[in-house]
Amino acid sequence: MTKVTLIGAGNMGGALAHGWLKAGQTSLTIADKNEQILRQLAEQYPAVKTTTDNKAAVREADIVVLVVKPWLMDKVLDEIRPDLDLDRQIIVSDAANYGTDKLSAKLGGAGQYFYVIPNIAAEYGNSMSFVSHNGQATQANIDAVMHLYGQCGAVMEVQEKQVEAGMMMASCGIAYVMRMVRAMTEGGVEMGFYAHEAQQIAMQTMQGAVSLLRESGLHPEVAIDKVTTPGGVTIKGLNELDRQGFNAAVVSCLKAGMK
What we know:
Blueprint: E1 4-7, H1 11-22, E2 28-31, H2 35-44, E3 49-51, H3 54-58, E4 63-66, H4 73-80, E5 90-93, H5 100-107, E6 112-117, E7 127-133, H6 139-150, E8 153-157, H7 160-171, H8 173-190, H9 195-216, H10 220-226, H11 233-243, H12 246-256
Parallel strand pairs: 1-2, 1-4, 2-3, 4-5, 5-6, 7-8
Antiparallel strand pairs: 6-7
Helix pairs in contact: 8-9
């Protein structure tokens, strides 16, 4: 079993921890300065190793995953650098905009460096994770990282320049999808459902749409045509979305974080 050390157990790190542990990643060490978070994880998963000592946590690891705030990355890397074995270990940054070039500049040019962006659905095995590397990674190590994040959902190997767009679509994008669920819920309440009923309807409808597209392989517009009858109510709603600038708003939303 690959030995994995996770540094940072906040929202994203905690989601990965839960996802990996649920998937059977038994050789996992979690390091965080928050003892309460570590205690809760240890109570839920008795086999997991936890520590507040980042330096000790990385020494025996095969893969070191850093999930700390971007502005803390330099400090954490300075702390653990003397205890890393860059000839052997895979170093992964999950910190937004802290890619392999920054890892290389901080730790040295020769290393197996990865930049990976998952999302918080990792806790439930439904993340969309984007995996990139510095070009020096061996295929075996690429496979190891892909397998690790694959335990938490879908993975896609991309060029590093694509990670930011992937982050907007999936990591940030999960919040945009939730806002759509919330908007549909509010509409349902206005039309007479209780909020919890409207949210259930919105979530099931979204899940149904995703399942239909995934299982059928249909292009979204082809699938839309299947539920859009001449003179029917669906086309009226679609045309209203167009009048309100729905498509343009979604595209602008995704691109906003890249400016």
